[in-house]
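Budget justification note: compute hours in this period were largely spent on complex prediction jobs such as the one shown. Inputs:
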Amino acid sequence: MSDHPTGVEKYEARARNANSLVCVGLDTSLERVPERFKAMEYPQFEFNKWIVEETHAHVAAYKPNIAFYEARGEAGYKELKLTLDHLRERHPDIFLICDAKRGEIGSTMAAYAESLFDHFGFDAVTVNPYLGGEPLAPFLERKDKISIILARTSNPGAGEFQDLVAGGKPLWQIVAEHVKTWNKNGNCMIVAGATYPEEMRSLRELMGGMTFLVPGVGAQGGPVRDAVTAGLNSQKLGLIINSSRGIIWSEDPGTETRKLQTEINSYR
Amino acid sequence: MSDHPTGVEKYEARARNANSLVCVGLDTSLERVPERFKAMEYPQFEFNKWIVEETHAHVAAYKPNIAFYEARGEAGYKELKLTLDHLRERHPDIFLICDAKRGEIGSTMAAYAESLFDHFGFDAVTVNPYLGGEPLAPFLERKDKISIILARTSNPGAGEFQDLVAGGKPLWQIVAEHVKTWNKNGNCMIVAGATYPEEMRSLRELMGGMTFLVPGVGAQGGPVRDAVTAGLNSQKLGLIINSSRGIIWSEDPGTETRKLQTEINSYR
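Corresponding output:
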């Protein structure tokens, strides 16, 4: 048994120690990787290693979106595994999120838990609520691992179904209320997009101190100030604020990460 | 350019020629693969090859659930690719569905389209509607490829959110109505679980001749007769009826597949 913290405590310890709520999204599409990495045997991994080198002092979490590795099939999978192995060895205190948005029947969710928590070693995985809470059991029973349930996503068309009103409440709110009942092991978080700060404020009132994963700042245009002021919990924590493309494809990822860290902290 | 049919036409041509609406789900979890395959270099692929050998005469489609390959990381990905290459070479007329239930923002869905349609060569992929139709654009614009949108899933807890009533209609129906508007290229299908035959009947009335992917027979216990009588379209087609565990882990997969084919056809 390791005596390192797991779950929410791992995130909060790192956020405090690094004085940062920043998550860098490792959405490393091979096409956009600079030429100097493309010539290497493992271009996605080498690029990620460089991004980690440049940014790690300013982050609480990293979040690879698995789609950009799957796009290359087995080769991309190997590079994702190399990235995770590197992060866990060199930076064991940084919180590692797999953005996968999985939503499956129970027997299949068990296979996903094995893959993402055990094979890759992620601390947390994003999951989709459309199939309900019943099939999430293989995730929710993992007391040391975090399930991050989509409530309000950051994309422009998020409201098409999430804003439907049933029994006087929008679907995103109903989902969040159900997540409170799924949280018996204290291992749930929700997604609340920075592009919808009003919904973020409502969710903070509803969810107590629960931590939110906040996509949508940076390239997606969500306002940092509104997200932070609406979303912080009483500990001045409770947010994992992710920027992917706005950092990793910038000229100077380290500086961009530090700027986001400083901007967020200026509103805390 | 190939002159083979694609999309719905590919499915219908195969269903007619094989006189079958059966889909076999290649949910090949390594743990359950018989010992004689486990000693081989590519146990999932070799097992799949054997299942295909035993069952192909009786099927219109195969549907690997990608979770069971991802569970092994890059090794499983390779075996899935080997399986797809084998199927496309030896049985180019069989319809190939990836059960992945993806639901992402648009830039990420583009990566999934590349992975699943181009790298693996699937004809169709299951997708989750929670983020709305806007991010599905990279799928919907692929005129030769099918997006199969979850409407009513087969799991016991499917109704937790799918049965919520907004504006007098349950969410599963609202999703299906939106899919009709997304279907400009005639390349959408929906998921309608066999475990909910009443919803299947409503969906058939609503959706015209659209083809439904029907999980939930076999190990999940859905009644074949009710699903077929409720779900057939006017061409006595319009259903892709999947059994996974009930076939692939049986003593005699070929016989089980033929029995399901015969049972379905007895109600057509």
